[in-house]
């Protein structure tokens, strides 16, 4: 196995924050996002990670960001370390393949989720009420049913703990009608394009979560203050964070798909299934994963990278 990168420590670069997976630094007018090999389950970061997970997530994101440029601009400035500021070149061994230099953007306070199949929290809600995030669905659907038309089901974005599903009307109250409509329409376009591309490679994208931000640096301050149009004054919406990775999406094999039951996903489900066999209360600190589970999960991540991005 390759070395596992659990955290970074670039002493001459301004550190901003450490998420469950990513470390973020400020580099001049841009941000450096480094995807580590940390793995979390039930909102707890586990003591050991999955080798090359960060590189795989980054490469899948870069692939999809490039595929979706015709729908929406993204935050990427550079992905090759040789194109980064010189202060970062000494860290090439860590950064290569697992990092992105990106524009600064103000994140939208909502997660944009599109569901094409009935699974996860959507399936749980449907069993109780016949709805998903308040959207009425046809009677008689079963777990993993394909939806005739994908649905947009936003959620809040929690700094800690779980995100909470909200209705589209609730989303409008948070970000405004115009922005909510645009985020919904763009999210559905991205999902539909990705679904069609993935199906040609034998992969079902059951659902996915996207993040957007406002790129305010696209307008100089002195110009922004003089603009009367509030939409232009606020800058432009762009895709940020990650997109269509195993950590933000459910990928299923078309060959093995069968509705009426849960599906085997190309993600860290192997980790979650193992943890559910333990006497663990799903609070920090989490248990160390055995080598067998680490190796199986790493192979699953590598497999989906090979299928989607080659």
Keywords:
9 helices, 2 domains, Phosphorylase Kinase, domain 1, 7-stranded antiparallel sheet, 5-stranded antiparallel sheet, 310 residues, D-amino Acid Aminotransferase, Chain A, domain 1, alpha+beta
Characterize the structure shown.
- The protein folds into 2 domains: 14-104, Phosphorylase Kinase, domain 1 (2-Layer Sandwich); 107-253, ATP-grasp fold, B domain (D-amino Acid Aminotransferase, Chain A, domain 1), CATH 3.30.470.20.
- α1 (53-67) runs parallel beside α9 (291-309), α4 (168-175) crosses α5 (177-199) and α8 (269-275) runs antiparallel to α9.
- It contains 9 helices and 16 strands.
- It is globular and about 60 Å long.
- A hairpin with a 2-residue loop joins β4 and β5.
- Strands 8, 9, 12, 13, 14, 15 and 16 form a 7-stranded antiparallel β-sheet that branches. The protein has a 5-stranded antiparallel β-sheet with strand order 1-2-3-7-6.
- With 310 residues, the chain is of the alpha+beta class.
